[in-house]
C-alpha cells in the first residue's frame, strides 16, 4: 500500500486530492488505460452504510474514488452544518480496512482499489460565489422539480437543490462509470437518477440497500447525536416501517391501512406511551411524515388509493427526536433535536397486466 501525503505532510493510506486539476490528470490517464471507475460521495463520519457502498463499488469497478465533503448548500441556516461530525482519521482507516479486506477476498475484482479520496475545500467546489443556503440566493444551482420539492424537499426546501448541485459538480470532476448511493436516502437516489437521465450524464446510478444496526435502526452519521436513551427510543421508526411492510407482504394494498400500520406502532409502543398523549419515551418523538409513494417518481399514493402490486411502492418516514424530557447528564443537557429518516421498499409481487 502506498502512503501519500497531504499538504500537512500527515501520511494517509490513499492519495488525497484537495483540488480538481491533479485529479483530472489521474483520471485522464485512467481513461486511456480503460479503467472502470466507481464513485461514492459522502460527507464523512463514515459508518457501515457508507462502507457498504464502497464495497459494492470495489466489486464492480477496477478503481474507486470516495469524496468526503460536507456540502454547505444542502444545509439550511438553522441546520447542523457547523456541528456535523468530522472524523477524518477514522474515516481513512475504515476505508483502508475495507480495501484490505477486499484485496484478501477471492472475488473477480480483488485487485480493485481505492484510487483516491477527493476532499475539496468549499472554495474549490464553489469557485465563483460564496454558496448560498437561501432558497432565493444567487449561485449556479441544479434543481430537479417537482421531485425535489416533495417529502424531504417539503420539510427541507434547500436540500435537494444543494444535493443535485454538488453531485453535478462531483460527477463532472470524477467522471465515474458508476456512482453508488444508499437506499437509506431513497428520495435522493431518485433525484440523482432523474438528474443523470435529464442532463445526459454518462454514468450508471447504483442504489445499495440500507445498512442497519442489529435492532433495525438505519445507520446514519447523525445517530451519534442521539445519546443512549434517545437511541433506544429511536428504534420505533424502523419498527413502524417494518410492520407496515409486513402488512403489505401479507396481501394488503390499501394505502390507508398500510400507513396506519406504521402509525399504530408509534401509538402502541408501551415504552413510548406518555402522560400527555404525545409520542416518545425518554423524549418526545414527532412524526414529520409517513408517506407512501410510487417507486419511479415518488408521486404520493393517497390514503383512498391502493398500492399497485405489480409496481410496489416506497414507504418513507421522517421523525423529529426532541431532547430528553429530564436530562441526567451534561451531554443530555446540551442535546439538540435530531431528525431521522428511513424507508422500506414494498416490492412488486405480481406481474403487470
Ligand atoms: P452522507 O454521508 O450522509 O451524505 O451519505 C453518503 C451516502 O451514503 C449516501 O448515498 C447515503 O444514502 C449513503 N448511506 C448513508 N447511510 C446509509 C445506510 N445506513 N445504508 C446504506 N447507505 C447509506
Automatic annotation (TrEMBL):
Cross-referenced SUPFAM superfamilies: Nucleotidylyl transferase
Reactions catalysed, as given in the entry: (R)-pantoate + beta-alanine + ATP = (R)-pantothenate + AMP + diphosphate + H(+)
UniProt xrefs under Pfam families: Pantoate_ligase
Recorded coiled-coil stretches: none
One Gene Ontology biological process: pantothenate biosynthetic process
Pathway: Cofactor biosynthesis; (R)-pantothenate biosynthesis; (R)-pantothenate from (R)-pantoate and beta-alanine: step 1/1
Enzyme class: ligase
GO molecular function, one term: ATP binding
Source taxon at top rank: Eukaryota
InterPro entries: Pantoate_ligase, Pantoate_ligase_C, Rossmann-like_a/b/a_fold
Keywords: ATP-binding, Ligase, Nucleotide-binding, Pantothenate biosynthesis
EC number assigned by the record: 6.3.2.1
Family statement: Belongs to the pantothenate synthetase family.
HAMAP family tied to this protein: PanC (MF_00158)
NCBIfam families reported in the protein's UniProt record: panC (TIGR00018)
The protein, known as: Pantoate--beta-alanine ligase
Organism: Knufia peltigerae
